[in-house]
């Protein structure tokens, strides 16, 4: 174990000192032995590195965060919790704090790093973290599942890391396991290939299962009798949903030990600095566990409601899933199904603008002039990404392409070169009169096979599928059949595959006809005037 003195020793700790005058080869062997984390933490290094990688989704950032975790643990070794289980949960709590601090330090304007130019080995390392069955879980459920399933923490340890009560942690894990089983059952129905509706939903074998598409698949399996029978046969031998045995083991990435050790030494050197040059350290509770940053709640609310981008990017190939705080960084939250306030672009007769103050979703504002069209559908559009979160509509100044495929280059210049890598599909939607224009744009290095379906029989799609080459775009016109639309306010979804994007369209149908009022009963005839009694005869 490394020394607990503030200054770093000059001799090699954790191994025998090399004798003076020893051959260089022997000294190299001794130096190689010390390029490892402290012995009490060595068995947890791979798990902690995987944890940091799943949160930060960047190899070097995960190494730096893990180095900071080991440096904090080494500095507080004499005040660490006793017991192996508590020490392991304490290390993961430190990793959670370090990753959260880095995500918050990036600021609200930080964007997710692009995957172009990433070495193949690191892309495979990130792909190791993918977990399609967890697409229907919330951020809190996914975080608890990662700790319990991938890292093997007990419910008590999960509660300690997440600062929850043990009963609350067990309930969270149980509900998350049920969602995983529902998704696993839906995927088993997709693999069977017996239902044509499910085949239209999936569209492509290389689809990225997002929260929106997962909801459609699970809903269909619940409603379709054939799919329910297929699901019952597929899960006949499975454990009871919600039990720990129903979750298979997940892989863990191997940590680069030498790089982690170097990062730990750098972090120790940084912590020895004084004043503002020293990095921040967490505040610890009475048990020795790090407390969350004091402004976490406020920052989380702002960053979760922040408009991410004007488009939804749905990757065709499988991509790594951000296991924990993807909502803090503004990256697509694959696997989360949070539902913030809807962001809609409402049809108006005036000039629209898109003000955005950086603290909430960008909304389209409009004037109060009445619509002049006698049968305006009052259509509003919401684009929901693969993570289940609405995104803002495109700026009003952007040109709206006409229906049909187009791959027009910029005026006076060569056509843009498609970006290398897998095919990507970008979805934009905005109302135009009584119709809705859904624009699909392909990018990347491969063609994209797309399909579009709707659950509303009163919506008409100008196109339902096709192939887009990199750089091409296509606009699908969605019209409303007023003869078959429902009465009153209605809402419908248009699902786009691959990627699980969903466009929610809301409109106002014809007003319900007033029911005839029953005839008022006529008042009863007045009672006849009684006759006065006659004179009484005298006796």
TrEMBL record:
<keyword id="KW-0804">Transcription</keyword>
<feature type="region of interest" description="Disordered">
    <location>
        <begin position="275"/>
        <end position="302"/>
    </location>
</feature>
<feature type="domain" description="BACON">
    <location>
        <begin position="423"/>
        <end position="488"/>
    </location>
</feature>
<dbReference type="InterPro" id="IPR024361">
    <property type="entry name" value="BACON"/>
</dbReference>
<feature type="compositionally biased region" description="Basic and acidic residues">
    <location>
        <begin position="283"/>
        <end position="298"/>
    </location>
</feature>
<feature type="region of interest" description="Disordered">
    <location>
        <begin position="336"/>
        <end position="429"/>
    </location>
</feature>
<feature type="compositionally biased region" description="Basic and acidic residues">
    <location>
        <begin position="1"/>
        <end position="10"/>
    </location>
</feature>
<protein>
    <submittedName>
        <fullName>DNA-directed RNA polymerase specialized sigma24 family protein</fullName>
    </submittedName>
</protein>
<keyword id="KW-0240">DNA-directed RNA polymerase</keyword>
<feature type="compositionally biased region" description="Pro residues">
    <location>
        <begin position="513"/>
        <end position="539"/>
    </location>
</feature>
<feature type="compositionally biased region" description="Pro residues">
    <location>
        <begin position="411"/>
        <end position="421"/>
    </location>
</feature>
<feature type="region of interest" description="Disordered">
    <location>
        <begin position="1"/>
        <end position="37"/>
    </location>
</feature>
<dbReference type="GO" id="GO:0000428">
    <property type="term" value="C:DNA-directed RNA polymerase complex"/>
</dbReference>
<dbReference type="Pfam" id="PF19190">
    <property type="entry name" value="BACON_2"/>
</dbReference>
<feature type="region of interest" description="Disordered">
    <location>
        <begin position="500"/>
        <end position="539"/>
    </location>
</feature>
<feature type="compositionally biased region" description="Low complexity">
    <location>
        <begin position="396"/>
        <end position="410"/>
    </location>
</feature>
């Amino acid at each position: 174990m490394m020394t607990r003195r503030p200054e770093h020793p000059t001799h090699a700790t954790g191994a025998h000192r090399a004798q003076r005058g020893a051959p260089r080869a022997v000294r190299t062997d001794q130096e190689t032995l010390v390029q490892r984390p402290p012995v009490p933490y060595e068995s947890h290094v791979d798990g902690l590195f995987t944890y940091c990688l799943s949160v930060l989704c960047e190899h070097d950032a995960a190494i730096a965060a893990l180095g900071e975790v080991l440096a904090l643990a080494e500095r507080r070794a004499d005040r660490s919790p006793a017991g192996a289980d508590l020490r392991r949960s304490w290390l993961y709590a430190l990793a959670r704090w370090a990753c959260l601090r880095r995500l918050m330090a990036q600021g609200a304007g930080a964007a997710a790093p692009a995957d172009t130019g990433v070495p193949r080995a690191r892309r495979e390392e990130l792909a190791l973290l993918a977990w399609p069955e967890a697409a229907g879980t919330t951020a809190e459920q996914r975080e608890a599942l990662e700790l319990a399933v991938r890292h093997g923490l007990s419910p008590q340890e999960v509660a300690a890391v997440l600062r929850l009560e043990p009963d609350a942690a067990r309930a969270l894990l149980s509900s998350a396991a049920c969602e995983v089983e529902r998704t696993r059952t839906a995927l088993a129905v997709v693999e069977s290939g017996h239902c044509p509706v499910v085949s239209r939903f999936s569209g492509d074998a290389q689809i990225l299962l997002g929260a929106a598409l997962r909801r459609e698949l699970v809903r269909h399996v619940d409603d379709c009798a054939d799919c329910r029978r297929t699901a019952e046969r597929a899960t006949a031998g499975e454990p009871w949903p919600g039990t720990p045995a129903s979750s298979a083991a997940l892989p863990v990435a191997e940590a680069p030990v030498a790089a982690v050790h170097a990062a730990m030494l750098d972090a120790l050197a940084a912590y020895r600095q004084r004043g503002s040059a020293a990095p921040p350290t967490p505040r610890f509770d009475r048990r020795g566990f790090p407390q969350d940053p004091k402004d976490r709640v406020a920052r989380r609310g702002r960053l979760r409601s922040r408009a991410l981008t004007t488009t939804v990017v749905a990757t065709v190939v499988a991509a790594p899933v951000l296991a924990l705080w993807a909502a803090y960084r503004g990256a697509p939250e694959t696997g989360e199904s949070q539902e913030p306030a809807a962001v809609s672009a409402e049809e108006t007769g005036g000039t629209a603008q898109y003000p955005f103050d950086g603290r909430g979703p960008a909304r389209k504002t409009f004037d109060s002039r009445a619509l002049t069209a006698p049968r305006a559908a009052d259509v509003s559009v919401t684009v929901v990404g693969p993570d289940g979160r609405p995104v803002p509509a495109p700026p009003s100044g952007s040109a709206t392409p006409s229906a049909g495929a187009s791959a027009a280059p910029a005026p006076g210049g060569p056509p843009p070169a498609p970006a290398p890598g897998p095919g990507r599909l970008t979805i934009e939607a905005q109302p135009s009169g009584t119709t809705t224009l859904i624009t699909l744009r392909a990018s990347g290095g491969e063609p994209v096979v797309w399909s579009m379906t709707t659950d509303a029989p009163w919506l008409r799609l100008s196109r339902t599928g096709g192939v887009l080459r990199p750089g091409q775009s296509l606009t699908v016109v969605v019209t409303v059949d007023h003869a078959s639309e429902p009465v009153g306010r209605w809402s419908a979804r248009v699902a786009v595959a691959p990627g699980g994007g969903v466009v929610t369209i809301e409109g106002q149908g014809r007003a319900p006809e007033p029911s005839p009022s029953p005839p008022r009963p006529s008042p009863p005839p007045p009672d006849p005037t009684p006759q006065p009694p006659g004179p009484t005869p005298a006796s």
